[in-house]
Amino acid sequence: MGKIIIDPVTRIEGHLKVEAVVEGGKVKEAKSSGMLFRGLELIMRGRDPRDAQRIAQRICGVCPTSHSIAAALNLDSAFGIADKIPDNGRIIRNLILGAAHIADHILHFYHLVALDYVDVAKLAKYEGNNPALNSIKSFIERGELGPFAPRYEGDYRLPDEANEQAVAHYVAAFDIRRKGQEMLALFGGKMPHNMGVMPGGVASVPTVDNITSFLWRLKELQEFIDNVYLPDVLAVARVYSDYFEIGHGCGNLLAYGSYELDGKEPDLTKRKRFFKPGTTSTSLKFSELDPAKITEEVKHSWYADSVSGRHPSQGDVVLDEEKRGAYSWLKSPRYGGTVFEAGPLARIMVNYVGDNPEVKSLVDSALSQANLSPDKMFSVMGRNLARALETKLIADSMAGWVLELKPGEPAYISYKLPEESTGMGLVGAARGALGHWIEIKEGKIANYQVITPSTWNISPRDDKDQPGPLEQAITGTKIKDEANPFEIVRIVRSFDPCLACSVHLLSPKGHDLGEFRVC
Prior knowledge:
- The strands form six sheets. A five-stranded mixed beta sheet has the order 3-2-15-1-16.
- It has helices at about 40-45, 50-55, 65-80, 85-115, 130-140, 160-190, 210-240, 345-355, 355-370, 380-400, 455, 470-475, 485-495; strands spanning about 5-10, 15-25, 25-35, 195-200, 200, 250-255, 260, 275, 280, 295, 330-335, 420-430, 430-440, 445-450, 500-505, 510-519.
- It is built from 13 helices and 16 strands.
């Protein structure tokens, strides 16, 4: 029993603190705290609405592409052109977003998550001819293990051959991710913070050359996904099958949908998308998405209670840094007053139960290989597997989408700025449901609100004291070794939070057990 401080947990982005009360070797209660306030929504006010397209991408350097799409959909809506985007513009947006998602998911598994399951130190005994592994072995012999250390010790179960293969693929994934970013840049102009996506469509036009270049790189990524990424995820899942029982979470999943298949419907929730919007739960029943049910609550956030319970279109940012009982700069998004998790798991399961034949076929195949039922996806390993399955679905679909482009036809439509209007942009970001809302008055931004996926997932308790998804996922977890609580970081990283993170474990008696720096 005691207080364990893990500060920081690396291999995630941003500033997060998690506190957990451990009693009898089990987490009794958990709190997740966003420890950074930036106020980008306040920066938007009074500006030209088109500025949101550029500023919104600066919300995140890891997933700016998702913000560029959400901002564009938001402005399309506000400018009255949501159903007028040329097909080339719609398709190129899909390709830009898909390239970002592929690169992001490969990053998540190999460079953020895999090191929780792979023992790099074993390479000290490596006797093979792989140049990458021999290079890492030389670093180990010199005692230079970064970025593989510091780390937790123990609970590394992969057989030697699988372990060596995973480390070799860790290195190979850097090059593959680069090619994903190159694909994005072919149409987006640059990465991060692309310049290609804009209200009305995109700035680039398709040519035979950039279609061919995109497809050439995509084929290489598809080979990596099919022959390396998916097999590695399934190999880890088989060895760590107990992690299909850990980190269950709130059991409710919400997805906004993504990848426009037909841009002629102005209502985003009714538009045909490759990943449809909706909700589901452990009951595995599909429900239509109703954005009117979204609210943000702030009882335990450092914001004035006067803004609690509002729909994001009416949201506000009123600070209350001295608020009693508050412990996070994140608000608590809720859907119909209930806690919901967002992310690739949500997209996959919403579409699995929503009769998406491509999703159902792939998920059933993966579950069959792992000898699992669909309800086991609500877990640490289920989240990791869902990302890999989604990556394959996106890559395979993009191979068809890119061939639908029509060189010589427009990818953009002009528009007139309104004096007064409102808009909404909903998209499935790499980490989950991303929403942008705008209000325009006198031709300027009067209000701009954003709910990111990690705000859903890492939210603090709400007005009814319901814990957020991560808090619920950690609660009840058995801690095998209080001096080595690797279970906590594995749960945290399965959500891929866009926050830098310190995790604190506290026993009711509050004794310090130790302090660790964790990679």
